[in-house]
Structure formats: structure tokens, C-alpha cells
Backbone:
């Protein structure tokens, strides 16, 4: 993959690569520590790109999307804190606070899918009982989400996972992204209703869960902008 991208980059006269992917980065941001869906395991992407004389900037896909969503919302939420919920094959958050993307000390910030509420299923990360084993669409058939029983369990656990985070951060805007929430506007509205019940209006002022207006293209915008900023130092 790096060889292909390097060839393309050089043909276009580019000096570096910016890659966002579904998985975890190493603490220093140079390796794909694990990306179960891509079969990447401690894959040194930056070193591989350096072999072709290219810089390489890596981001987690939800972080890249969160930064793109934040840039895209500067008119309606100038400078405001933003929480981006990604409910797709996995379940994770991206956070932009005080104008900065927050990645955490170990690049694990926002990985709320991997707390363990005591479920029985095995998670894509290899651990038993992570919230993602219920919240991640990778563990279900798409039609399962139209069944009331699963939908209610999903909503219960999504609210238990998200409400404390929203209360802790008090974001200016919260955006719903990912295959599950993008393609099921009624699920997004149901989740909004349940979160409003969990977050009293007197405190949190009529919580809104907004749809993305830019879609997946914003992850590309995000990772390119983050790569440019990193290059400038
Ligand atoms: Zn897990």
C-alpha cells in the first residue's frame, strides 16, 4: 500500500503522505499499533514511507473526522468545543477542545467502545466484554438494528457510555457520524431523546445531537490539515 501511495505521491510532486485509518497508533504516532480490519499489527508506516523519501502523517480515522467536522463548523460554532460520536463498525469519540484535537497520553482518548460493562461477547480488540461488542455494527447484521430488542439494548448502553462524557466535557456541539447514525436518522433522533432524558435541561440546555453535513470527505480534510500543521511544527 505504501509503495502504491508513494508512487502516486511522487507522480503528483508531493513530499509526504497523510493517512487516517480505523485502528490505534503507537504513542509516538509513527506506527499503526493495531488495525484489526486491515490486518495491521505494529506496522511502521512512517518508516516505510521514509524508505521512499516521503514524510508520513498518521491519524486515527475518528480523530481525522472530528478535526474535519470542527473545521467545517467554524461558521456555526466558531472556536467552540466539539464532540464527534462515531457509531459504525466500531464505537468511538473524537474531541476538539480549546481549538485542539485531543488524542490523550497514549493516543487512546475517545476510545469509549473499550470500557467493559460486563457483556459476554468478544470485542474486535481481542478483549472480552467491551461495550463495542454490542455498540459496534461489525458485531451485527445491518437488519438487526431494526429489531426493537437490540435497538433498546444498543440505546441503553450508548446512553450509559455517552452521557457521562457529555456531562464531563460540556461540548458546544455534538455531531453524530458513522455508518449506523448516518444511515438511520431516526436512530440519531432516538439517541438524542434518550440523552436529553439523561442530561437535565436545566444543566445542559436542551442537548442536541447534530447530523454531519460534510460526510466522510471531512476525514480527508481533517487528516490533510493536521498533517500540514504537524509539518509546520
Ligand atoms: Zn475492545
Residues:
Amino acid at each position: 500500500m505504501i509503495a502504491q501511495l508513494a508512487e502516486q505521491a511522487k507522480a503528483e510532486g508531493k513530499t509526504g503522505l497523510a493517512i487516517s485509518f480505523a485502528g490505534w497508533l503507537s504513542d509516538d504516532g509513527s506506527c499503526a499499533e493495531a488495525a484489526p480490519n486491515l490486518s495491521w499489527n505494529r506496522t511502521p508506516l512512517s518508516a516505510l514511507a521514509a524508505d521512499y523519501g516521503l514524510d508520513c502523517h498518521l491519524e486515527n480515522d475518528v480523530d481525522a473526522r472530528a478535526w474535519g467536522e470542527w473545521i467545517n463548523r467554524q461558521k456555526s460554532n466558531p472556536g467552540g468545543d466539539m464532540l464527534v460520536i462515531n457509531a459504525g463498525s466500531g464505537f468511538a469519540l473524537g474531541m476538539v477542545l480549546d481549538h485542539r484535537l485531543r488524542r490523550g497520553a497514549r493516543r487512546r482518548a475517545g476510545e469509549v467502545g473499550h470500557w467493559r460493562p460486563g457483556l459476554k461477547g468478544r470485542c474486535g480488540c481481542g478483549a472480552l466484554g467491551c461495550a463495542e461488542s454490542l455498540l459496534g455494527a461489525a458485531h451485527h447484521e445491518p437488519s438487526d438494528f431494526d429489531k426493537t430488542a437490540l435497538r433498546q439494548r444498543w440505546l441503553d448502553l450508548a446512553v450509559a457510555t455517552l452521557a457521562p462524557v457529555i456531562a464531563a466535557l460540556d461540548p458546544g456541539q455534538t455531531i453524530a457520524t458513522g455508518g449506523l447514525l448516518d444511515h438511520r436518522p431516526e436512530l440519531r433522533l432516538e439517541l438524542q431523546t434518550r440523552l436529553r432524558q439523561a442530561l437535565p435541561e436545566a444543566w445542559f440546555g436542551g442537548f442536541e445531537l447534530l447530523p454531519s453535513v460534510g460526510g466522510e470527505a471531512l476525514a480527508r480534510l481533517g487528516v490533510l490539515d493536521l498533517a500540514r500543521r504537524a509539518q509546520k511544527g
Remarks:
- The pocket of zinc ion is lined by residues 114, 123, 125, 127, 130, 132 (CB under 6 Å).
